[in-house]
Amino acid sequence: MSVSRTICQGFIIVITFGTILLMLPISMSNGNWSHPVTALFTATSAVCVTGLSVVNVGEYYSFWGQLFLLFLVQIGAFGYMTATTILLLLLGHKFRLKEKIALQQSLEQVGLAGVEGLIKSILVTTIVLEFTGIFLLMLVFVPVYGFQEGLWYSIFHSINAFNNAGFSLYSDGFMQFVKSPLLNLVITGLIIFGGLGYQVIMEMFLWLKYLWQRKKACYTFSLHFKVVTNTTIFLLIVGLIAFLIAEFNNPNTLENLNLGEKLIAAWFQSVTTRTAGFNTIDIGNLTDAGFFFTIFLMFIGASPGSTGGGIKTTTFAILFNSTKAALQGKHEVLCYQRKIPIIVIIKAIGIVFASTILVVLATTLIAFTDQHLELTSIFFEVVSAFATVGLSLGVTSDFTIPGQLVLIATMYIGRVGVLLLVSTVFKEQKPSAVEYPEGNLYV
Known about the structure:
mainly alpha, globular
């Protein structure tokens, strides 16, 4: 079986298992069996680290249901191949060449060297960052709820924030904490690290280690690191400015806050919009400009190898530089004085085109099955589902069962990747010995 099929089928297996767990009476706060579609929707949203839900997670599920939800979020964030590998490593399993090749392809590594080491580093990084988040969030939740309940709130939201899942035990997200600098900074910090990707975090660690050892030679960052970090910083700053301007005088979002609180709220929205799905302001009351820009940032999403979705920051950077090259009349795409291979550009174009088709198709289907909903609301929910963001206008629970099934499929495709899913159907073409003549088109 190909690696792409293994990954796609692995996610389906985990979603099925999670659906069964969330259907059990032990998972329900009322002790009854859950509706199958509700359990399927929540399990898919958790495994695909989305955060959309047709129910209030804090009230609908018991402690065990919420624990199962966290379990699914963590597996979904790791990815099927990585989660399975971590389990086998803990059991002392030795990997054969075939298994290393599968891991190398699933992690998008260039070579086989250090694949097992990367998996161990991913596990350690996750544990360190999530426990750091838990400790810091306890300073917020323990004074409010006491130690036991405050600890659980800290664990639940730290894991969801780092894995960019967006599930919250509050029905309105973090709106009551919009003025809390500590919660805002901790949650956004976890989201950013989770959205950068493990390879970028590892390279950042190696750089800090390099500085600690005080070596004289300059540390050379990889092209991937430069593109991901600079694009992320650019989008975060642009998002902060855009939300601050768009919502500054909106009485339903930022108007009643002082300047410092407005900056924190706009920063939180800029961070969470691209991948996480938490909110400290009412998403349903955004201005038209804020609404449109939210959709734009959601569609871009996080970075490759991260816990977030979307077309990815690298794809956005490649298309930006391709457009720049076309406007300048150049015949090659450069990025930080490096030439981008044509196959990478083709892949980026394919991702954007296929993602756009998916969003349009899903929106059209739901507009047909759920005619009682506004088209803008449907479009927003579909983009949020595709990019595995989890932000909602509060209409997710109003979707009919057919509409929910379309959203489930959209979340799944958005998590595994459009091109990866297509590759399970079509065999990879071998390089052709025939070279065809060029033909010109008007564009």
